[in-house]
Amino acid sequence: MKIVHISSSDIQGGAARAAYRLNQALNRLDIDSRMFVRTKKGDDLTVSFPNTSKSIYDNSIPSLNFYLERYPVPFSTGREGVDISNDSLIKDAEIINLHWINGDFLSLKSLNKLERLNKPIVWTLHDMWPFTGGCHYSNFCDRYQEKCGRCPILKSDQEEDLTRKVWLKKHEIFNKLDLTIVTPSKWLAESARESSLFSDSEIKVIPNTLDTGIFKPIDKKVARMILNLPMDKHLVLFGAVKATKDKRKGFTYLKEALEKLSFRRKDFNNNLELLVFGASSSEEMESFPYKVNFMGTLKDDYTLALCYSAADVFIAPSLEDNLPNTVMESMACGTPVVAFNIGGMPDMLEHKKNGYLAEYKSAEDLAEGIGWILKDERRLKVLGKETREKVINNYSFRIVGKKYLNLYEELLTRDIEVKKWSEVYGLLKWNNLKKYVGYFDINKAPNIKDVRQIMNQVWYDIGLETENISEEDLDIFQSHPIWLFYSLFIETEPTSMYHINLIADYFKDKKNLNILVYNDSIGTVAKEIAKRTPSSNIDIYKSNIFDYIFENIKGYQNISFVNTLKDNYYDVLVSNNIFEYVKDPVQLAARLNGLLKKEGVLISDWDFDSDIAFNLTGNFHFKYTFENIVSTLGFSKNQDLLNYGYRFIKENDVSQKDLDQAYKKEDRSKRMYSFNEKNSFIFADQFIDFILEDNNKRVAIFGSGELGKLVFNLIQEASENVAVEYFFDNDKFKWNRSLFGKMVLKPELELCNKVDKIIIASIYGKDAIKEQLLGMGIDERKVLTIYE
Residue 69 pLDDT more than 60? Predict the structure, then answer.
């Protein structure tokens, strides 16, 4: 396996060091890993730079300085760069791993030329630039969630400003790239998923790594002796590139915190000194309460490790940051860290277990954390042990290197699957599909987004609408050969097959069952089930079939295709993604009940994606109320099925009364969750009726402005039997769309475990609220969202 890492430098800057350390980790695993950089500062033979005349770089330096220094946060346009696609190292690589490519190393045009090599590209993000209109950190602006424009960093009030132009260029180029996005922190992954550029991309979280043989605890006295530092003082360490000048690094808050600490803890005044690397002096420190020891810029890891080991605590007051190397390095050396609770800090630091997470921009809490750590020598030792263990278990070369290796192997396996596509095209009625798939390179498999886009195009070309659709129209669409194309694609698409295998795993060790797979286009699901339970009989039913299904299930003696169905016959019924495409999902659910024996099992999953035209919008409400509706049709409440799909147990047959009640529930839920309805207020009272009908006695509300207050008042007025136990007003806590996802929920939110239902009546931050609630272990079925 040959990997090449593209980075503007090898060891100059935090992102470069992170990339270089990954390169080292992979080489330790005997992987042929190389780095390709604009500026080489080290002497590692695995690091190369392009054979490009120096003058090209020199000409671009003025533009780089203009964009990086003129604005309050780093800003790059991606206009300047060099073409590296013809370099032999790039051509020979099996996988290209991009890192921080700015500084006029690679332009957006350079990325466009890499696309022509038809190689998998992994992009490890070290800041937000890849999905913004130019800024490297958004400074809490959320314009990148749309298309940028009116950029506050550029102080622009123009919609079509520079950031919009950069965004449009990225959108044009990124859509062509075979990109897999990796972020070192969960925060950056969440930001990328919220972005308009990467919202549909595959995003994985793999942390940075470091050499735990270099960054390790060194006897404190020895470290201080080598660095000529005092033996009898508390040493507080702070460091970063441009440590005292880069506002994002938060030096101002550190200074204020230490001033507060000096006032609060007089015993520290003659017993504490500050140690700073990444700077040689600072005018701000002339009136500083403690002595300051400047270490200057440290260019080797061994001296850095001595600094961390010499210190008692490291302070990281960054205002925005990904997964800082400095924090990881300090932890590896057994030195606990105090940091603001932002970005990737919570990934590494557990509050008061291996460090201290201070309230954002609170110098007061920063001072509290420093004092808390330094107060107790025994605590200091325990924290040091915990920090080292966290790094060994999560960030060592071996751990992180293997995660990247697994990713690379997955991508290369997928690339091998690409070769099947020449066979796939041979199976299709080419003349009927040429206008839709003709632009695909048969040596390169499309992705799920491409395929769905093609299916949408077929839908519109046939002249279908999502609102006024007949059964005959649906039959025409589902008989179109694009469905064979889609089904063949699924068998080569890793994520789809992963989900199918999760469902099929339910049948492991089960014997002699009668199983129906409903609507299995070419037998893909049935084949996987047959492998798990060869003694069971498996029937496939589909109203519109392709002849290829008989070829595909050939060799599986226990699979049959049926065109008539038997009532009360099946032990298990599997229905994959069918409720999205039918006119009457309630009638279908009742029909499926009739096919099952008493206590038979229904295994179902659904997509209901608003980007898919043939997901009928009239059925969108089922995404949220399916369980409630089918419970009326004789099924027990569902259970999760290996985190994908749901399992229902048939308890009773369906009577006409049950069916009537189910339709009433469906009508209410349809009005409540109408996808096209933007005014949530209209449906608030119906929503409350739905809550009351379920006999929920205790409710918690996450409210957003007037909508939250409306829901609160409606519940209070609707019934004396339902109590709003907790009301969390976004305005009260000053949550907003850009900040909420970066905050830790208030401790009192744990009270939500005590209620029957949690209502999210919030327009902004709703997804982040729900994600954090689920992260606290709250059952998803307790959570209902009004605004969709």
Answer: no
